[in-house]
Amino acid sequence: MNLICTGTIGIDTIETPGNGRREELLGGSVVYFAAAASFYAPTRLVAAVGDDCPAEFLDTIKSFKGVDTAGLEVRKGSKTFRWGGKYMDDMDHRETLFTELGVLEEAPPRIPEAFKSSEFAFLANSHPAVQLDMRDQLDSPRLVVADTMDLWINIAKDDLTKVLGRVDGLVLNFDEAELFTGKRNPVTAGRHLLELGPRFVVIKKGEHGCILVHRDGLTALPAYPTEQVIDPTGAGDSFAGGLMGWLASCGAEDPGSFESVREALAHGTVVASFNVESFSLDRLKSITAADLHARFADYASMIRVG
Amino acid sequence: MNLICTGTIGIDTIETPGNGRREELLGGSVVYFAAAASFYAPTRLVAAVGDDCPAEFLDTIKSFKGVDTAGLEVRKGSKTFRWGGKYMDDMDHRETLFTELGVLEEAPPRIPEAFKSSEFAFLANSHPAVQLDMRDQLDSPRLVVADTMDLWINIAKDDLTKVLGRVDGLVLNFDEAELFTGKRNPVTAGRHLLELGPRFVVIKKGEHGCILVHRDGLTALPAYPTEQVIDPTGAGDSFAGGLMGWLASCGAEDPGSFESVREALAHGTVVASFNVESFSLDRLKSITAADLHARFADYASMIRVG
Hints:
The first copy, chain A, is α/β, with parallel strands linked by helices. Chain A has one domain: UDP-N-acetylmuramoyl-L-alanine:D-glutamate ligase, CATH 3.40.1190.20. At the A-B interface, α7, β13, α9 and α11 of A face α7, β13, α9 and α11 of B.
């Protein structure tokens, strides 16, 4: 099954408490998502960059097997999105050092005709009006999941509410679920969000794992325990990539069912655990499907009880 | 197998953000522990109270099946330990409103002769010198686990280090593991603590579950997801009660093995999830072994992947 992802490509500057500062890193939601998803399913990428985007960044994206970059627009005279972030001591919180929107202030990229029949779609974090536009360009996808962030909850909640009425699933952070709903308990917050339309909500808790609130069930999964946390950037997007990639490849009659999404979350968890082990895409570039399968088996057995 | 627990009985005052304030509640580590453990194994309790302790508190303790109170000292003219705590909005953090040590400032209770052959022992949170004394009164237990708190890490770290050399396992909170070791990553902190003697360390993360760092393996388990969090007091002790109760009853040749402790953590997680659903022992008093088994089966299946 084909999977499409719309989102950003960025040039990142990252500061970490233990591993120093790195500049001119390949980043952006769609990049982390596609790199992770590509281990599972052919992934179509829709994003725009300026002509300042280093050629090797595009080469890296293309190096992930099965990633189709026909929807990647390189715009002459435009600037690529740049973001700088600094992680706090706990590595689970960060502050934004700077944001240069560049191409993100222009018209959003168009979805190529050949991509419009994609069966699975992930609308990575962007203005919910853009997400709605992307959603509407798709013919009749089987499963659409959106991500969001605190900014849109604060300034574009109405549009975001419309997005919730047009997707099967929503992925967001613990704090964002509380910000949106005013409910601190993640199960209560998730149930509240379900009332706005989606069939399931995934609440991400970083190193503490995630909670799935689905119309047909509830679960919590831990993060894969690791000592090796170099850079958490892209953890949420690679998590979503594993989640959606697995759903697109699993062959389930109902890929949005509680059981399918629950299993998919475990795959997302495992891919994300690799991603945080280095800066940028360095770790995801270095692993094989066999590495992923081995860690998945380890993860599944470590949480198996009863 | 017989299980012994040494610790405190208290009269608690609890303030919660959503469910008001309650006074004169039965509390204390040994009470929550024994109530939880009693679902699995005969549990011997060692603690002291003053003669101001309400008779119905003692009746409640005795009402838990298989709890042996021969080690419960009611001291004439002494005052029962009193503690007041206030929970913050997130229910995972609390501040102490007052502490009246009372009987805890006197000599610790003695372990009855008949209890000294106990095979499983839990040294609930108290001054590590008292924990060491309790440990030394036991003949040759098969498995000893201790709890601790930030206070002892701050003022009695040497004694606590001695305790670590005399127990099989340590249970402590996430923040305490960092305070003790200076390592924020729980796996790193756990490995550091293993070097001081124990075979395993359980790092409790409240609503985010727990991490097990064992000489023979590593795991993380989520908390049971629930909307019903009325009062988290005693969650850690009931968690330890389920953990130790299950280990004492499981019949494993090596109850301290990675596999045994991992399974036991899941039982602790489930008992603790009931405990937080009401003030004091109210919820644990109301459930049956069948309720516990049903939720355990639910928990095991919700986290089963692969």
